[in-house]
Every structure is written in C-alpha cells, then in structure tokens.
Design goal:
Layout: H1 11-29, E1 39-40, H2 45-54, H3 58-75, E2 86-87, H4 91-106, E3 110-120, E4 125-127, E5 146-155, H5 161-166, H6 175-185, E6 187-198, E7 209-214, E8 225-228, H7 242-257, H8 263-267, E9 273-282, E10 285-295, E11 306-309, H9 315-323, E12 332-333, E13 357-358, H10 372-385, E14 389-395, E15 400-401, E16 403-404, E17 414-417, E18 421-424, H11 452-455, E19 456-458, E20 465-468, E21 472-473, H12 475-478, H13 482-486, H14 498-504, E22 507-513, H15 519-533, E23 550-556, H16 562-567, H17 572-580, H18 583-586, H19 589-596, H20 598-608, H21 622-640, H22 648-653, H23 660-683, H24 686-700, H25 709-722, H26 727-739, H27 742-746, E24 774-780, E25 783-791, H28 797-806, H29 808-814, E26 824-830, E27 834-839
Parallel strand pairs: 1-2, 8-10, 22-23, 24-27
Antiparallel strand pairs: 3-4, 3-5, 5-15, 6-7, 6-9, 6-14, 8-11, 9-10, 12-13, 16-21, 17-18, 17-20, 19-20, 24-25, 26-27
Helix pairs in contact: 2-3, 19-20, 20-21, 20-24, 21-26, 23-24, 23-25, 24-25, 25-26
Bound molecules: ligand ANZ and zinc ion.
Ligand ANZ binds near residues 188 and 307.
Catalytic activity: tRNA(Leu) + L-leucine + ATP = L-leucyl-tRNA(Leu) + AMP + diphosphate
Keywords: Aminoacyl-tRNA synthetase, ATP-binding, Ligase, Nucleotide-binding, Protein biosynthesis
Pfam families: Anticodon_1, tRNA-synt_1, tRNA-synt_1_2, tRNA-synt_1g
C-alpha cells in the first residue's frame, strides 16, 4: 500500500516497507520476476490545510514531502522500482482517474443524487460516516456534525455487493479482514411487506402504503406499530393529520439532526419517537389497525426506511414500545413451551429473539403451530399472493459517495450545461487540471467554485456557456486503481495496457496497515472488478477470473488500541489518526537508523513481533541485533581467512565419507534454509526466520574443521539468507567472502560476481534435515535410570527396547538376578526423547 506523503516517515511505514522489501529481495533471489513499485497517495485534506495554515501551494507542499520521504525510504535500504513511481496528484495520473470516472459514467455506474450529508461546520466540508465519531462529532475538527442536502455523485458499488461478498471466499486474506468486509457489505435475507395506509383525513398521501423490510417474516403477526425514518417522504405537513402535523414535523427535524453520522449510531439511538397520527392495515389481517410512528432508530438509508415494530421479539422495538407506551403482542415462543404462550419468555427482558414456534392463537391464523423457519416461508408466500409482500435480500452496503467539496483532489470531469444538462468532459480534453490560482481559506464549500475563469467553460455539446462541476473525487478513487497503473506506469495513451495489466495482476502480496481493512480494500476490489468486467484487463490462466485485485493480503498490526476499534468494523479513519499518534509511531525512524544503522533497525523490527501483531517498539533490545551483526562480521572474517580445501561440487560427491561434524554442519544449514524459506514464502513469521539464522550463526561459530567445504557452504548460505533482511550487511559480507576467493570454491550455484542479490537463494536438501543421532532418556517404572546416547533417530518402540536390552545397564534394571528378562507390562514412548518401561516387580 502506498503511503500518504505527510513528509515524515513513521515507524508504521518502516515496518510495511521493510516487510515488502525483504519479501521482494527474497523472491528475486528465488528467481522470480518481482515488481516492487512505490508511489504516493498524494491528494487529500492535509495539503489543503498546510496551504491554509502556512500559505504554501498544496502541490509544492506535497512535492517537498514526497522528496523528503523518498530520501528517508532510501535510508532504510528499500529497493523499489522507482521507474514506475507515481503520484495521484500528478495530472498524468489523475487524467486516468478522471478517465475511469467517465468509464463508470458511460456504463451507467455513477449517478447524481441529492443526498443528506454530514456537514462539518468548522472545516466546511462533507464528511464520510467513518469520519463522524460515536458522539456525532467530526474526527478532524471535533465540531458537532450537521446534516445538509447536496447534489452529489455516487458510484453504484451496491450493484457489485453480491460479487464482492461471494468472491471473498477465494482470497488468501486474514479471516478477520474478510469478515470485516462481509459485515460491511452486510447481506440480509428477509421480506418486504406493504401496509396500506388508512386515509382518515382528506389529504393526498405520496404513497398509499408503507413498505417495511424485515428479517423475521414469522413475527408478522406480532407487529404492534410501524416506525418510519425521520426523513421518510411521508413526514411532511401536507400529508399528516392537520391537528398534529406541525408538531410532528418539528420533532422529526430534531430527531434527524441528532443523527448525524448515521450507521450504527442511529441503531443505538435514544428510542425517541413521535406518533404521526397515521394508521396502516396489517397485510394479512386487514381488520387490524397499526399506528405509525417516527423513530430515531430507523435508518432512512437501510431497507425501505421503515420497520414493523415487534416488541416481543426485537430488543430495539421493545425499548421503543416501552418509551412510547405501545402494547406488546407475542407471536413466537420457545418450541418446548406450551404453544398457547402462557410461559413467560426467558432472558432479562420480556423479549424472545430466537427462532421458535408460532403460538396457536387466533392472531397467528393458519400459521399457529408452525416453526419459525416454516412460517417465514409460508407467511411470505401468503403475502405475495395478494401482492402485499415478497422475499428480498438487503445489503447494508451503500452506494459510494464520490463528490468532495475540496480543492486538493481530481476534479470531477463533468460540465453542467443549462440546455444539455450533465455533459461528460470529452476524453481528448482530459485531464481537467486543477486551477492553481484558488484562494484556500477552509471555509465556504467547494473552493473550485470560486475560480470563476475555471468554472465557466463551453458546453462540449452545444458550445453554449456552461459550468464545470466544482467538486473533486474522493481520494479513495485515486487509490482504487494505482496498482494497475504500476503495471504500465509510463503509458501516455491509456491508464494501462490490457496486456501488461493482465500479465501483472492480481497483486501477489499486498501489504499494509489493518486500518485499510474495510474501505480502501472494498473500493479497490470494486473498481478492479469493474475494469475487469469492462475488459480493461483480463486474467492469466492462473487467475480466479473474477477481477479480484489482491490475491494475498498481509495486514500489519499497529500499536495502541486502534486496531481493536477497527476489529469491530468501526471508524477506520478515526482510528488511523489515533494510531499515528500512538507510542511507536512517535519514534522517529531517522534517528533510530542514524544511531543503530538500517540493517539493525530492519532486523530488530522484524524480530520483535510477527507482522500481524501489534508492535511495541523497544529501543533497548536493538543493541542485541547490532551485536549479532558484529558477531556475524567476525564469523565471516575468520571464515574468509581459511578458504575451503575443496570445491563444493567435489565435496558433495564425497558425501558418504563426510565426518560427523561435516554432516551436522550440512544438516544445520539445511534446517535454517528450510525455516527461513518457509517463513518468507509462506507464513511470514519473519521473527522465526531470523531466529533460525541466529541459531545457524551460533552453530557455525563452534565448527572446528573450518576448511571443510560444508562449513563454507554454511557460511555462504547464511550470508545469502541474511541479505533480504539486512541488505547492506549481506552485500558487505558477500564481498568479503568474494575477495578472499572463498566463494569460488564454496558456492554451488553462482560465481562471486554480481553481488549477493545476484545469487540464488539456497535450496533445501530434504534428505539432510533428519537429526544424525538422538539421546533417549530411559525411565524404569517412572524413574530416570540412564540415557541411550547416539541413538539412531526415529526408531520405533520395539527397536529401541531391543537396543536397551543390550546395554550393560539393562542387566541391573531389566533382568532378574538369574539373567532372565523381567516382564515388560507397558512402555511409554516419546519418539527421539524418552522411553518409560514399566516392568513387573
Ligand atoms: C421485524 C423484526 C422482528 C425484526 C424481529 C427483527 C427481529 P438486518 O438483519 O441487519 O438486516 N430494520 C429494517 N429496516 C431498518 C431500518 N431502516 N432501520 C433500522 N432497523 C431496520 O436487520 C433487519 C431488521 O432490522 C429488520 O427485521 C427490522 O426489524 C430492522 F423479531 O423486522 B425486523
Ligand atoms: Zn450544452
């Protein structure tokens, strides 16, 4: 994941890019063609704020930050494909972001809609729900967020809800990230029922019924009220009974303004409500009259914006019924309880939320006695006969609001003409560049609206006077396709060539902070799928054929409690801010690198914790890594003094005649190769890889016959394996070995030329992994009596027992005085470690 160019590399960046750099160096050494690109997520509010606070142009500020961070990235020895560098604020890049918007437009995947938005009255800007905290305050300014209506662009991500959910299955991603994605999409099966309104007054209603969405059609006969959202179309003085209309509308306004931020907050609303004066008919029991309320817990953006209140079976409905003194009808009971419902529901509240059996009471009609499962189907079937209901699937996912009333973003490539309406900017006129002469004050809506000579333009259709759209695109649009651009970053004619993107996609390993586990990944998946479906790129035979952009995801844990907030799927943006202020991100990597060196910093970072875990940066123990690097230097220096007697190839040919020590050296080397390779190619447990390298170096320091080629092989392999983690140490040590003429004789695969990163990663010789011998503790009747040294590994119980009987000590413990073996009652065997022999007394 590319960084936001804040100007300062923090420890979180060091961690992500150390991981990606180590992996990319490793995979290059295994002979793969690796693309390790880097770029800058360079649009966004901070640049605009810098402009306001420090009077620097956002572009200049951003460019300076990029230069500074690039330098810092070099100091941690990252090896990126800089020839593919991109910055989303560069017109050469956002030209294509605009092109992709137009692709969405041409495919009817974006639309303009007046929508209630969260308005930050201090920053004068629209906020995403994720930017509003639990108390309805802006994540940035802290101001109480207001609700406003603005005409804005939306992308139809909901058209892809099913695919975005279903295709999660095939991804090699952490389970918790997949479940965050799936909760965000929030598929819910249920039914819609329509309740006809009873027209008591003479007013013309905008609809003759209220449609509700329920996930529990089996509770339809327990409904005691309907509740509609405060901004439901019925909430208007002209439709409501005259005597209470004004009061109801006033209360509805209060309710909706207390709900800024939407989402989960509203679901936990105060249960405030107001009776509208309207009544509706029960769809399957027309004699029943149900009162209609406005309720703060009903979201206007979910389902139909209206619910059927069933206080006996839903806790929110119960609380609302208590607060508004509504009677409770009880429809479903526990299967075991008497079906007349005389038993009280279990649990703290008189609410039974489980599935059960429908009571045999007149209210439940012919459905009494059915299980909830059966009743759900039967009730929906009965209602669909009369057109009063149907089965539906609902999603929590909402369409993606693309418009931002900000300056530092890609202008929406649309022109508004009084006679032609909405007109897309012709491709040949892209990019629509940002005007540079805009006064930024942080107040008063879209800054672009103030650049009169930019706003006023000619309509591409009728050539008449027209105006540009003055909003910019959400920066999540910029970052939803940059990985595709990496495949073909210099392309001046297209966002990327289909062939190049097809060859490169999907991204094999996508690495980044868990704070992007929801939105960035969801939007990237959506845009990738869209581009894939419209043929902008295809899939190689190995692909999953669904346009998924990221095959494997490695999310790195953060410090502080931010990660936990995120695990619940809440407010990633808020948490990100908190996290960047947290303890370990407060440590300045430049200082650490200057003091301990980049290699020690990288090694220490990866050794402290597996990448998924939260990292508590600890400056104390980094000296341990420094010392290990020094020991490694001494080990290699002394090895270089003593070139091996034989070439490695010759040596391998004589394997049968190797000394015990040589065999053990070869075994130790292969164990380390196996552990390091496994961690780098599969588990990403870098800490165990480094531990294996430390163990190997400790072993090699004890080898006596250092002129044996197995020792040289061990040393050369160790240096190669250290290199992806500690590149400058690796290069340096390789050079020492090369100069000493050590490598020509020792190294199997390659010559000493080209430096360590031109070498191939050592292969594991599976046949060498087995321990040469083991020591087995022998217990007799549970007491340790002696040890079997130098035993053949992996023996079964019987063969060990046979060996033991031949030992001199066996005489004393396992034979009677007359020499006959004692009767063995039982043996307990821990392979390669211990055997406990129970003998009869
Ligand atoms: C009656 C009922 C009875 C409900 C019962 C639940 C349990 P999920 O599963 O998340 O989709 N609901 C529907 N639309 C809503 C809205 N716009 N705002 C707030 N709540 C809404 O939730 C579906 C349930 O959430 C629906 O099923 C409805 O309450 C409520 F024993 O209908 B239920
Ligand atoms: Zn026109």
């Amino acid at each position: 994941m590319f960084p936001y160019p804040s100007g300062m590399l923090h420890m979180g960046h060091v961690r992500v890019y150390t991981i990606s750099d180590t992996l990319s160096r490793f995979h290059r050494m295994t002979g793969k063609h690796v693309l390790h690109p880097m770029g800058w997520d360079a649009f966004g509010l901070p640049a605009e704020n810098a402009a306001i606070e420090r009077n620097v142009a956002p572009g200049d500020w951003t460019k300076r930050n990029i230069a500074a961070m690039k330098e810092q990235l070099e100091t941690i020895l990252t090896d990126f494909n800089w020839d593919r560098e991109l910055a989303t604020c560069d017109p050469e890049y956002y030209k294509w972001t605009q092109h992709i918007f137009l692709q969405l437009f041409n495919n009817d995947m974006v639309y303009r809609k007046e929508a209630v938005v969260n308005w930050d009255p201090v920053d004068q800007t629209v906020l995403a729900n994720e930017q509003v905290d639990k108390n309805g305050r802006s994540w940035r300014s802290g101001a109480v967020v207001e609700q406003r209506k603005l005409k804005q662009w939306f992308a139809k991500i909901t058209d892809y809800a099913e695919d975005l959910l279903k295709d999660l299955e095939g991804l090699d991603w952490p389970e918790h990230v997949k479940s965050m994605q799936s909760n965000w999409i929030g598929r819910s099966e249920g039914a819609e029922f329509s309740f006809s309104l009873i027209q008591e007054g003479s007013s013309e209603l905008p609809a003759d019924s209220i449609s509700v969405f329920t996930s529990r059609p089996d509770t339809l006969f327990g409904v005691s009220y309907l509740a509609i959202a405060a901004d439901h179309p019925l909430v208007s003085a002209e439709y409501l009974p005259k005597d209470r209309a004004d009061e109801v509308v006033r209360r509805a306004k209060e309710i909706s303004s207390s709900l800024a931020g939407g989402g989960d907050r509203a679901a936990q609303g105060s249960k405030a409500g107001v009776f509208t004066g309207l009544y509706a008919k029960h769809p399957l029991d027309p004699a029943r009259k149900v009162p209609v309320y406005i309720a703060d817990y009903v979201l206007s953006t979910y389902g139909t914006g209206a619910v059927m209140g069933v206080p006996a079976h839903d806790i929110r409905d119960y609380e609302f019924s208590q607060a508004n003194r509504i009677e409770i009808g009880n429809a479903v009971v526990e299967p075991s309880s008497p079906s007349d419902g005389s038993a009280a529901p279990s649990g703290e509240l008189p609410v039974f939320t489980n599935l059960g059996v429908l009571r045999r009471v007149p209210e439940n009609g012919p459905f009494g006695g059915m299980t909830s499962e059966d009743a759900m189907k039967a009730v929906v079937a009965a209602a669909s006969k009369t057109g009063a209901g149907k089965a539906v699937v609902n999603y929590r996912l909402r369409d993606w609001l693309l418009s931002r009333q900000r300056y530092w973003g890609a202008p929406v490539p649309i022109i508004h003409c009084e006679s032609c309406g909405v007109v897309p900017v012709p491709e040949k006129d892209l990019p629509v560049e940002l005007p540079s002469n805009v006064q930024l004050s942080g107040r008063g809506g879209s800054p672009l609206a103030r650049a009169a000579d930019w706003v006023n333009c000619k309509c591409p259709k009728c050539n008449g006077a027209a105006k540009r759209d003055t909003d910019t695109l959400d920066t999540f649009v910029d970052s939803s396709w940059y990985f595709l651009r990496y495949a073909d970053a210099q392309n001046a004619a297209k966002p990327f060539s289909a062939a190049k993107a097809t060859a490169a996609m999907p991204v094999d390993i996508y690495i980044g902070g868990v704070e992007h586990a929801i939105l960035h990944l969801l939007y990237s998946r959506f845009i990738s799928k869209f581009l894939w479906k419209t043929g902008a790129y295809g899939e190689t035979s190995s692909g999953a054929r669904n346009g998924e952009p990221f095959k494997r995801l490695l999310t790195q844990g953060m410090a502080g409690n931010g990660a936990r907030i995120i695990a619940t799927g809440e407010a990633p943006a808020v948490s990100y801010e908190k996290m960047s202020k947290s303890k370990y991100n407060g440590v300045d990597p430049t200082e650490t690198v200057a003091k301990y060196g980049a290699d020690a910093t990288r090694l220490h970072m990866l050794y402290l914790a597996p990448p998924q875990d939260v990292l508590e940066w600890d400056t104390q123990s980094i000296v341990g890594m420094q010392r290990w690097i020094n020991r490694l230097g001494r080990l290699v220096d002394s090895a270089a003094e003593n070139a091996p007697k034989q070439s490695w190839l010759q040596c391998v040919g004589e394997r049968a005649r190797w000394s015990k020590e040589a065999q053990e050296t070869y075994r130790q080397t292969n164990v380390a190769v196996q552990r390091a390779s496994e961690s780098l190619s599969g588990s990403f447990a870098f800490n165990t890889a480094i531990a294996a390298l430390i163990e190997l170096s400790n072993y090699l320091a004890t080898v006596k016959d250092t002129s044996h080629a197995t020792f040289a092989y061990g040393i050369a392999s160790l240096v190669k394996m250290v290199s992806p983690f500690a590149p400058s140490v690796g290069e340096e040590l390789w050079e020492v070995l090369g100069k000493a003429g050590f490598l020509t004789a020792a190294d199997l695969a390659t010559s000493a030329g080209g430096g360590v990163f031109a070498q191939s990663w050592p292969d594991v010789d599976q046949s060498a992994l087995r321990k040469l011998s083991v020591t087995i503790v022998v217990q007799i009747n549970g007491k340790v009596r002696f040890r079997l040294e130098d035993a053949e590994p992996d023996q079964d119980k019987e063969s060990i027992l046979a060996t033991i009987m031949e030992q001199p000590q066996a005489k004393k413990w396992l034979r009677s005085d007359d020499g006959t073996p004692k009767q063995v009652v039982k043996t307990i065997h821990v392979p390669n470690k211990l055997i406990n022999i129970i003998v009869a007394k």
